[in-house]
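Entry 14. Two folds queued back to back today. First construct below, sequence then structure tokens.
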Amino acid sequence: MTVNTPALCFRSKKILAPMVRVGTLPMRLLALDFGADIVYCEELIDIKMVQCKRVVNEVLETVDFVAPNERVVFRTCVRERDCVVFQMGSADAERALAVAKLVENDVAGIDINMGCPKEYSTKAGMGAALLSDPDKIECILSTLVKGICKPVTCKIRILPSLEDTISLVKRIEKTGVAAIAVHGRKKEERPQHPVHCEVIKAISEAVSVPVIANGGSHDFIKEYTDIEAFQQAAGASSVMIARAAMWNPSIFRREGLCPLKEVMQEYIKYAVRYDNHYTNTKYCLCQMLREQLETTEGKKLHAAQSTQEICEVFEMGGFYEETTAILEAKKASLKAKTQDEDEQMEDTDVIKMAVRFDKREYPPQITPKMYLLEWCRKAKHPQPVYETVQRPLDKLFCSVVTVAEQKYRSTLWDKSKKLAEQAAAIVCLRTLGLPEGKLNEGENHLINKRKRENQEFLNNKEHEDDLLVEASHKRAHFTEGASDSSSSEVPR
């Protein structure tokens, strides 16, 4: 069992709430600039995250969690490592643990969303749907607390009755969580409904773990001094801010709000610096503009179709060109460095060719790796050993195969580990003058071997079926005789 040793303190903190499409890296960094103590990322679904691979992005100096379609699902950096909490949507303890283990070295804590009332979340048993399943809540949180070294929190909404709410949070407390964030509304209530500060206060008095009050943007928080007023009204340890921070992240600034245009320009700088997708940047800026969307500037923002166009709307075209030039130069420099390293790692004892594996050139289910393995068995060599590496810069793969103490590799890098291994096998086979199974090589002994194996399997199957039929007839005959014998003894 892993001992949970929380590093984060959740008392007397001002926290950026998790917000879908808003809580990406630029917004989190901007909130920290203005004084936020802790920042939560947007809710990310466990099923999407378990498919991601962790990639160090040397150009942006970030850690990216990249989906199979190459989309960056979660991006973080050293600046926020000690204060970013990763929020996930999950309804499965083991899957939640797998995601937590994937990201725990790059974040300060893990949170489970138990308050989102949106159908896309509740339909899958996540978010507010968990509130009606305390057993599952306990299972997920206990599994995480025992399984990782970072603090675990959860964010809930209040239940229809105070008694049920208190009962739930006491059960949550027993799992060992580091804090409980409470949105002071029921799952069917919306921002225009009053936040129930008295319920948050009752929760705070009922448990010993820090309670983080959330939901005060509409009723309370218009400027920095209002944050403390909301905290006192809710009797909470800390305050989590969503909409007020989305409208103007300088709400965290002790000295007061900054002019909105200045805030938006600072946000854009982070968006460009960290290659944020322009649609996400545009969405966040539109949330800040709100009623100003109908102004000339707002209409230009709405029409923008790239990060460069967004920059031009806010008179930041020069910044965009300068920053992208710096990033491109860095990328070129890293690429040159990578090529130098490739040349240096090209040991003289490695045989190389520029080849790629194209499965269209091979019969179905036949590959060079299969041919190489078959040859090694016949020649009584140990089976081939593949060593594959991935380049951080472009995420391409290269594989070296060792056969009979000789190494082989392709000089071309591939987009997957499997393709790189097949290319290495081709280099080995061609060097040794062996067939590799291509369609144009004539008779394919592996295909013939497979046909023989399949025929033997079918023959054995037919023989087994015959035996089963025969056994079935024997059982039927035996049963019939037994039935006749026993039926004569049964009284009518």
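Second construct, same run, same settings:
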Amino acid sequence: MRDVHLALLSRSLCCNVRTAAFVFTSYYLVSTLLVCVDIAVWVFSGKDLGGFVHSEHLTHGQQIFDTTSNFLLLCMMAISCVFALVGLRKGFSKHLVPFIVQVYLDLGLSMMSLFSGPWGLPGTPTFEESDRLVTQFTGGRQLEPKETARITTIFGVLFVLYLLMKVYTAHIVTKCYYVMKLTGEMKDSQKEESVSVKLPSYDEAVKMPPELLSPACKFI
């Protein structure tokens, strides 16, 4: 019965939760490294490769603090992704805990970015970012009300899908953690049940030296 429950728990939609967790963790790692590269290029050359908003309205000191804190947070995310990938490869459920915490933190900050863009992690899409990109593509032309409404609708739909993907990622990684933990507990219990002690027969016990006999055999 426990094996059947584990088999049902290990599936999500059309794939195994461990495979899905590996895919989402790899996506997080790649995207985090790309944002780190973009921030580094912006700091050293002033060029913005990915079109991310870098809080240009802040003072120079505030920009340094904001950029440094974001970069350190992204580094922590990358390290947790590496730990999670190693845990998925080796079957260590505890290695997934830092990544799970980071995913829920990213999800919460992404929801808060709906009210204020700077709340989101670097790389989180914002309406200001999309508006700036549209302005660049249109050559600075003033948009008509219908075009603005269309862009706002498209951004809203895409951002909802973006949040749903993060919710599904958090669900998959958490589910994978419990599956790996349950699998490890089952393996440990099977090892304990398979351990057996072979006691000597009466004739063998009589022939053995007294100092090698256990107290129970000496009593017999």
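Quick look at the second one. The chain has a mean pLDDT of 76. The helical segments are 2-9, 17-45, 60-90, 97-112, 127-137, 145-194, 202-207, 215-219.
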